[in-house]
Specification:
4% strand, globular, 510 residues, 21 helices, mainly alpha, 4-stranded mixed beta sheet
């Protein structure tokens, strides 16, 4: 109990129970409400993801890799992809914790990643433009913009979703003069997806402005060291090959420039339509380009990332959103105060309308024919093999491995690495000349080391244009099938199931 005052007899305040000033308490309450609101909005817009629908085959590929890793496999040795290690490791960690290979828990993390990106942009908008309204708008614009893609790109727990909060954190730290921390954050983003590395351009500008050459050296070391450490842990040669140097053929667009330019124009058109409000506001921001040069450089680096490889997958465009959102808020600052509120309302309404156009199909989304074929083949493989047996899926169907919960016989969760088929390229542009260098040797060595119990030939059902790359086009695999006496034992919705001569014939048609 407080002692009485010597002069008035009134109780003195007890220092042990003093309360924060009302302004501090109110500020904390507003902040909590803001964070909860952003997370809730992201969760509501991603409700369709809380299911086992397969929105994108990238998720199934990552899930297949994660299953190999949780079984003791090594990344870039027992399972490979042209991607850095963070997201496969994240999937594997979630599967280990949950004890399942369900996608829903990973998608919960995707909700948190999207919310984190929105909140980081809000923090930067508040610092840069000096108002809470700017912070709220930045968060709202980002959440709506991230939903303005078709479901397979907006809702999948893919590489960009987990890269964006790390890349945005790197920029936010750089603007606050935390150069070393900024470099480490960008390294983490690059270990999530390679294209994040291009964001080093605006970070270098900020580092130079602060400390000149010393700032650049600090940024460079902070960025490079974590990547080199991870490379050393995973095996320098394999890491560098699969993350960086092994992508040469993947980037080749020779002979198909007309197809590539048409694809780029179409996908860019969809992006501009979906982000109409942000793009128009960003144009207004050009008036103050000197104040926001770092943002324009960040946006330009994102454009380079989208164009690199000339694939133009819609989810690549997600990398443009953080700088575009901040430039849109900057554009609002160029409007006279008298009409700024009306411009804001119009921009939010337009963003909501375009977002609704893209999001509506997500609530009625059904697996595509290609996905259904892969899942049906996976169900058959699960029913006719034991968990210890391996299987091979010839085609672009990682969903089959995932739903079957069977380990691939090779390190490749799709055969595109050896057939040369891949997204963003004409379906007829296949052949061993487009295969990853050395992939055929690895593929055949894996088949000898881990013979499959069954093979699902997806090409007979023309799953994902598979009729363009049947086994007969690839002499080494065709010889393997012939020498092993592989023969059809069942047909599952047009997918041919093959068994070796040593396996008893069985199964049936579906």
């Amino acid at each position: 109990m407080s002692a009485p005052s010597a002069t008035t007899g009134a109780p003195l305040p007890d220092p042990a129970v003093t309360t924060p000033p009302p302004t501090t308490s109110r500020r904390a309450l507003v902040l909590v409400a803001f964070v909860v609101s952003v997370v809730a909005l992201v969760a509501v817009l991603r409700i369709p993801t809380f299911s086992e629908k397969v929105f994108n085959s990238d998720e199934a590929y990552l899930a297949t890799q994660a299953e190999v890793l949780t079984s003791g496999g090594r990344l870039y040795v027992d399972t490979v992809d042209r991607k850095p290690p963070v997201v496969p490791a994240l999937y594997a960690a979630v599967f280990s914790v949950t004890g399942t290979h369900d996608l829903a828990p990973v998608r919960v993390l995707a909700v948190l990643a999207q919310a984190a990106t929105a909140l980081l942009l809000a923090a930067e908008a508040r610092r840069r433009f000096g108002s809470r309204r700017a912070a709220w708008l930045a968060a709202l614009f980002y959440v709506l913009a991230a939903s303005s893609f078709f479901p397979q790109d907006a809702l999948a727990a893919n590489f960009e979703v987990f890269m964006l909060p790390l890349m945005t954190a790197a920029f936010v730290l750089a603007t606050r003069r935390h150069t070393a921390a900024s470099g480490v954050a960008l390294a983490a983003a690059t270990l999530t997806k390679q294209t994040a590395a291009i964001a080093v351009v605006p970070l270098a500008l900020l580092a130079w402005r602060r400390r000149g050459w010393r700032g650049l050296v600090t940024l460079g070391l902070a960025f490079a060291v974590p990547i080199l450490v991870v490379a050393a842990i995973l095996g320098f040669h394999d890491f560098v090959f699969w993350v960086f140097t092994g992508n040469g053929g993947y980037l080749d667009a020779s002979g198909i420039w007309g197809y590539v330019l048409s694809l780029g124009a179409r996908q860019t058109g969809w992006f501009l339509f979906g982000q109409l409000a942000l793009v128009l506001l960003a144009v207004l921001a050009w008036r103050r380009w000197r104040d926001d040069l770092d943002l324009w450089m960040w946006l330009a680096s994102g454009v380079v990332a989208v164009v690199a490889g000339l694939r133009f997958f819609p989810h690549y465009y997600l990398q443009l959103l953080p700088p575009l959102v901040l430039l849109a808020v900057a554009g609002l600052q160029t409007r006279p105060a008298a009409i700024r509120g009306r411009v804001t309302v119009v921009a939010v309404v337009v963003a909501c309308c375009t977002g609704a156009y893209f999001l509506r199909p997500a609530f009625t989304f059904h697996d595509t024919r290609d996905t259904k074929l892969a899942l049906a083949a996976g169900d058959y493989l699960a029913a006719h093999t034991t968990p210890e047996q391996r299987v091979l899926v010839w085609g672009q169907a990682p969903e089959a491995y995932w739903v079957a919960d069977r380990t691939p016989s090779t390190r490749f969760a799709t055969t595109g690495f050896v057939t040369g088929t891949s997204g963003g390229r004409p379906p007829w542009r296949v052949g061993t000349q487009y295969a990853v260098p050395g992939a055929w040797d690895d593929f055949m060595a894996d088949l000898r080391a881990h013979p499959p119990a069954l093979i699902a030939d997806m090409t007979t059902a023309n799953q994902r244009k598979g009729s363009n790359y049947p086994p007969s086009r690839y002499p080494r695999f065709a010889r393997y099938l012939r020498d092993g006496g592989w023969h059809p034992v069942a047909e599952v919705d047009g997918v041919t199931i093959l068994a070796p001569a040593t396996r008893a014939t069985g199964g049936g048609n579906r």
